[in-house]
Amino acid sequence: MDPESERPQICNVTPFQQIVASCTGAILTSLMVTPLDVVKIRLQAQNNQFSKGECFVYNNGLMDHVCICEEEGNKAWYKKPGYFRGTLDAFIKIIRNEGIKSLWSGLPPTLVMAVPATVIYFTCYDQLTAFLKSKLGENERHIPIFAGIVARFGAVTVISPLELIRTKMQSKRFSYNELHQFISKKVSEDGWISLWRGWTPTLLRDVPFSAMYWYNYELIRKWLCVKYGLYEPTFMVNFTSGALSGSFAAVVTLPFDVVKTQKQTHLWMYESHKISKPLRMSTWAIMKNIVAKNGLSGLFTGLTPRLIKIAPACAIMISTYEFGKAFFHKQNTQRQQL
């Protein structure tokens, strides 16, 4: 018997329940993965102090956020003094000297965008998958690729303008009225399309990642179910499938991640008036520059830190999400039987 035919069907879980499951997964993922990035940033700051106006990348397990240093001195969490000998030493000293809450520094403002993006992404993926399976059949293997591409495309498109607004608010303190004036001016000068600056490099990284992730996730999960004779994927099967598929997709799409970070950093510098002109080069031109300067390995800079974040983040997110859906499926089934 095909294990896939026995797993809980998405049609028995309502869109609202999918939203709750994805929201829970997003928050749990952020709570568990953020400390890894906080420690990484603190170690970076120790070796190379951030100056005012300098940028760094912050990741809460769901999204990358390019942040700008605003405060002078040691007031900001990423500038607090510390003499760490390594990752474990940093964990211990931060908890001992600053309290355990410091491991989640900078999380609240990034969750404002990351949670809605994740909810849109996962809910759209499942709804589209269910629709396509009802039209094309349960065993159509290319459904995860198409659903993953469309869901990610939608999430990136919705969130991109919010990212621009958030970056502007962080580079300078704006009132809501000033922010409205800034957006109105930007639209009148450059058109509505200007609100989606940075959209292309984000798509080039996230859409291929999503297609590979979902295809391999479904493939690995089905294989593990067959291998261990399971009628229904367990929490560990989902966890393992998420970690493996996320790691593979992270390696393949890393060059686009490097380009996206560079473009976003230049955008930050331009918005904070550190440079007079924004970066106008295409994604491919930036890639050529990186290869010319650092060789092919330059496109895979930061592979290990990316894997350390992506693998557990994908594993925690998908296994929590599937657990939530299975819980709601069980509740719905019991209600129908009453």
Automatic annotation (TrEMBL):
Solcar repeats: 13-131, 139-223, 233-327
The entry's keywords: Membrane, Mitochondrion, Mitochondrion inner membrane, Repeat, Transmembrane, Transmembrane helix, Transport
PROSITE patterns reported for this sequence: PROKAR_LIPOPROTEIN (PS51257), SOLCAR (PS50920)
Location relative to the cell: Mitochondrion inner membrane
Gene3D superfamilies the record matches: Mitochondrial carrier domain (1.50.40.10)
Xref: Pfam families: Mito_carr
Function: Mitochondrial transporter required for glutathione import into mitochondria. Glutathione, which plays key roles in oxidative metabolism, is produced exclusively in the cytosol and is imported in many organelles. Mitochondrial glutathione is required for the activity and stability of proteins containing iron-sulfur clusters, as well as erythropoiesis.
Name recorded for this polypeptide: Mitochondrial glutathione transporter SLC25A40
Taxon lineage: Eukaryota, Metazoa, Chordata, Craniata, Vertebrata
